[in-house]
Amino acid sequence: MKSWLLSLGLRERWMLGVGSVVILTTLYFLFVFEPLKKSREIAINQHVAALSLNSYMNSSFSEIKQISQSQGNRRTHIEASALLGVIDKGLKQSGISQQLTSISPDDDSGIIARFNNVNFDLFITWLSNMYNDYQINIQSLQVSNTSIEGRVKVSVTIN
User: How far is Cα 46 from Cα 40, in angstroms, rounded to an integer?
Assistant: First the structure.
């Protein structure tokens, strides 16, 4: 190989060197730089979507808090067995019963309901309706983002 390279003229060696640099630079951009650039853009888009969802959820939380404070504490006690029926009825009316993955009694006479891929707006509307109609209390609420925009994974403890 060395003898072949030395047998080439000066101009041919320069062309071969420049061509090699161009090919190596092109390969670097195709296989290193572009995938990094694409993954960075995807990460930025996911971050922006998470920020907008977080902002939306914070505004919804403040609205719910405002509504609950304005209505005062009108709670009437509902037994756990009756609470299951009330929750089931409310889920069917709101159209999110299909996203309910599990519902089980809690140790403190409450109910734990878990939802997967539930529409956030419909869930909050259901929760608001449950409070307005039956004065339920939310002991804990855990909401996490899913890959589908506007859909969330929720675990809520109600009593």
Answer: 10
Question: Taking all residues of the chain, what is their mean pLDDT, rounded to a whole number?
Answer: 86
Tell me the C-alpha distance between 37 and 40, whole Å: 5
Instruction: Tell me the whole-structure pTM to 2 decimals.
Output: 0.53
Give the chain's length: 159
CA 136 to chain CA mean position, Å: 26
Q: Is 155 helix (H, G, I), strand (E, B) or coil?
A: strand
Tens digit of each residue's pLDDT (9 = 90 or more) over 8-65: 899 998 999 999 999 999 999 999 999 999 999 999 999 999 998 888 888 888 777 7
Which of helix, strand or coil describes residue 137? coil
The predicted-structure confidence for 76-94, as pLDDT tens digits, reads as follows 556 666 788 888 888 888 8
Q: Which residues contact 132 (CB under 8 A, 6 or more apart)?
A: 71
* Cα of 43 vs its chain's centroid, Å: 14
- State the residue for tokens 């000066």: 10
Closest CA to 143 of 157, 130, 159: 157
Q: Determine the Cα–Cα distance for residues 61 and 73; give it in Å rounded to an integer.
A: 18
